[in-house]
Specification:
The complex is a heterodimer of chains A (124) and B (371).
Chain A lengths: L3 E3 L4 E6 L2 E6 L1 H7 L2 E5 L6 E2 L4 E7 L3 E5 L4 E6 L9 H4 L8 E5 L11 H10 L1
Antiparallel strand pairs in A: 1-2, 2-3, 3-9, 4-6, 5-8, 6-7, 8-9
Chain B lengths: L10 H6 L3 E5 L2 E6 L4 H10 L1 E5 L4 E6 L3 H5 L15 E7 L5 E11 L2 E6 L4 H11 L4 E4 L3 E7 L3 H8 L11 E6 L2 E6 L8 E7 H12 L4 E3 L2 H10 L41 H10 L3 E8 L10 E3 L5 E11 L4 E9 L8 E6 L2 E8 L12
Parallel strand pairs in B: 3-13
Antiparallel strand pairs in B: 1-2, 3-9, 4-7, 4-8, 5-6, 6-7, 9-12, 10-11, 11-12, 14-17, 14-19, 15-16, 15-18, 16-17, 18-19
Classes of the chains: A alpha+beta (124), B alpha+beta (371).
Chain lengths: 124, 371
C-alpha cells in the first residue's frame, strides 16, 4: 500500500492523516521467531528520533524498535501484553505496536517505499 | 582449531524440513523448523519430538581395568553398573571443576560407551587418553545419534522394537529399527520419557524418515531442546557449569555416588576429590538455583541478581520463556544465604528490576519411565 513506509531495520509505518501506526514487518517477525513478550511505551510519551520505543522478546532473543522521527504516542496496542503472539500471526494488522503523531510528518518521506523495502528483504 | 562448519548426516533432511540452520559447537544445526520453537516444544511435551544430536561425541572405552580406571575421572560407581545400565556423570578436573557432563553406559564387563558434549569432545578424548593409559579409546566417528522424546515415545518405539518396552529409565538394548542395527537407551534431556538411538551415519536418514512417517513424530530443533531442558531443570554445559564450577556449586550432588563420598566404601579417588569432598563437608560460597519470574519477561543468561539493598548477589546462567509453563524461568548462581527456595530477589533487565523467586526444579515434572 502506498501510505505504508518502511525502515532498513524492518519497522513499518502506516500513515493515516496526522497519525502513524507502527509495527514490525513479516520478515522481522519470521527472523525473531515466537514472540513471548512486548514492552510498550506509555500513552502520551514524547519520543525523540532514534529513541528505543518498544522491546520485543522472542523465545530466542530480545529485539527493539526505534523511531526514526520525533513523535508523541497517542495509543498503544492493549492486546499485546496478553497476546504477544499477534506479532507473529498478523504483524501488519492486529500485531501493531503503537500509534504516534509525528512532530514533522515530512520526515516520513525519507523512509523506504514498499518496493524499496521488498528489494532490501530480497537481498537478505 | 578447525573453523570449517561440519554437517551431520541429517543435514539434507533438516534443509528439506525448513530447518533454520545456525552454527553450534562447530556444526551447522537446526535451531528450529517452520512450526517454531513454541509449537515444537509443546509437541514434544504432548506427543513425540525427534532431535538430531549426531553432533555429540560417541566414544568407547575398553580395557581389562576400564571400570576402575574410569572411576579416577568420574565420581560415580562405574564398577557397580550392570551391563546395559547407564549413568549421568560429571568429569572433574584436578581442581574439582567440571570438564564435561556425559552419559556412560556399560556395554560389556570391560567396555563402556560414553556420549559427551560436542564442544568438549576433543578435550575429553585428550583427557581420557592422558589418564586411562591401559585403555583403548575409540571415537565412533561414523555413528549418528537421534533423540526421540515425549509421552508417546515408549509406545512408538515399543511397536517397532518390542524388546524396548521392558527398558526402564537409564537402561539400553541393542535392537533393530527398520532393519538397522541400533543401540537404544531409555534416556534423554527433555524431562520426558524417551530414547536415544545410536545408529550408523549411513542408516540414520532412513531411520529418521521412517520415524517421521508416523503421525506422532515431529522433528524438533535446538531452540526447543534448550527450552525443554531448562523447564526440566537440567544443566547446559558451558552455561550452567564449566571448568570453573564444581559439582557441589552446580547443585549436582546427586551425581556423586554415595560410595565415592567421604564416608563411602570407595571414598574419593577421582580428580579434584579433595576439593569436592571438602565442599560437601563445609559448604560453598555460591550455588546454582532455579528461579521463576512473575509473568513472561525473559530473564536471560548474564543478568545480575540483586537483593533488597541493591547488592549484586548472583548471576543468571540460563533463562528464558518456558512454553509449557507460559512463564519465564531460569537458573542462576547465588551467594550463600540466598539459595533457599522462596527467597525473593530482583533481576536487572535493561536497567529495570524484575522480581524473581528462588524456586524448586524441575519446573515441569519429569516423566521418566521407571517401570
Amino acid at each position: 500500500m502506498s501510505n505504508v513506509k518502511y525502515t532498513e531495520s524492518h519497522e513499518w509505518f502506516s500513515v493515516e492523516g496526522d497519525e502513524v501506526t507502527v509495527g514490525i514487518t513479516d520478515f522481522a517477525q519470521s527472523q525473531l521467531g515466537d514472540v513471548v513478550f512486548v514492552e510498550l511505551p506509555e500513552e502520551g510519551a514524547e519520543l525523540a528520533a532514534g529513541d528505543e520505543v518498544a522491546v520485543i522478546e522472542s523465545v530466542k532473543a530480545a529485539g527493539d524498535i526505534s523511531l526514526p522521527f520525533a513523535a508523541t504516542v497517542v495509543a498503544v496496542n492493549g492486546a499485546l501484553p496478553d497476546e504477544p503472539e499477534l506479532v507473529n500471526s498478523d504483524p501488519m494488522g492486529e500485531g501493531w505496536f503503537m500509534r504516534v503523531r509525528p512532530q514533522n510528518p515530512a520526515e516520513l518521506e525519507a523512509l523506504l517505499s514498499a518496493d524499496a523495502y521488498a528489494a532490501l528483504v530480497d537481498g537478505e | 582449531m578447525n573453523n570449517e562448519v561440519r554437517k551431520t548426516p541429517l543435514y539434507a533432511l533438516h534443509e528439506e524440513l525448513g530447518g533454520k540452520m545456525v552454527p553450534f559447537a562447530g556444526y551447522a544445526m537446526p535451531i528450529q523448523y517452520r512450526a517454531g520453537i513454541v509449537q515444537e516444544h509443546l509437541h514434544t511435551r504432548e506427543a513425540v519430538g525427534m532431535f538430531d544430536v549426531s553432533h555429540m561425541g560417541q566414544l568407547v572405552v575398553r580395557g581389562s581395568d576400564a571400570a576402575s580406571a574410569l572411576e579416577k575421572l568420574l565420581p560415580i560407581d562405574v564398577q557397580g553398573l550392570a551391563i546395559n545400565q547407564q549413568c549421568y556423570a560429571v568429569m572433574t578436573s584436578e581442581t574439582g571443576g567440571i570438564l564435561d557432563d556425559l552419559i556412560i553406559t556399560r556395554w560389556a564387563e570391560n567396555e563402556f560407551f560414553l556420549v559427551v558434549n560436542a564442544a568438549t569432545a576433543a578435550a575429553d578424548i585428550a583427557h581420557l587418553q592422558q589418564h586411562l593409559r591401559g585403555c583403548d579409546i575409540r571415537v565412533l566417528g561414523q555413528q549418528a545419534l537421534l533423540a526421540v522424546q515425549g509421552p508417546m515415545a515408549g509406545e512408538l518405539i515399543g511397536e517397532l522394537a518390542p524388546a524396548t518396552r521392558a527398558l526402564t529409565f537409564m537402561h539400553g538394548a541393542r535392537v533393530e529399527l527398520f532393519g538397522e542395527d541400533c543401540y537404544v537407551t531409555r534416556s534423554g534431556y527433555t524431562g520426558e520419557d524417551g530414547f536415544e538411538i545410536s545408529v550408523a551415519a549411513s542408516a540414520v536418514e532412513r531411520v529418521a524418515r521412517n520415524l517421521l512417517n508416523d503421525g506422532r513424530v515431529q522433528m524438533i530443533g535446538l531452540g526447543a531442546r534448550d527450552t525443554l531442558r531448562l523447564e526440566a531443570g537440567l544443566c547446559l554445559y558451558g552455561n550452567d557449569m564449566d571448568r570453573d564450577t564444581t559439582p557441589v556449586e552446580a547443585s549436582l550432588l546427586w551425581s556423586i555416588a554415595k560410595s565415592r563420598r567421604a564416608d563411602g566404601a570407595k571414598a574419593g579417588g577421582f580428580l579434584g576429590a579433595d576439593v569436592v569432598l571438602g565442599q560437601i563437608a563445609e559448604g560453598v560460597a555460591r550455588k546454582r538455583v532455579g528461579f521463576s519470574v512473575q509473568g513472561k519477561i525473559p530473564v536471560r543468561a548474564g543478568a545480575d541478581l540483586i537483593d533488597e539493598a541493591g547488592n549484586v548477589v548472583g548471576k543468571v546462567t540460563s533463562g528464558g520463556y518456558g512454553p509449557t509453563l507460559g512463564a519465564a524461568v531460569g537458573m542462576a548462581y547465588v551467594d550463600r544465604g540466598y539459595e533457599k527456595i522462596g527467597t525473593s530477589l530482583q533481576a536487572l533487565v535493561r536497567g529495570r528490576s524484575i522480581p524473581i523467586v528462588v524456586a524448586k526444579t524441575p519446573f515441569v515434572p519429569q516423566r521418566y519411565y521407571r517401570g
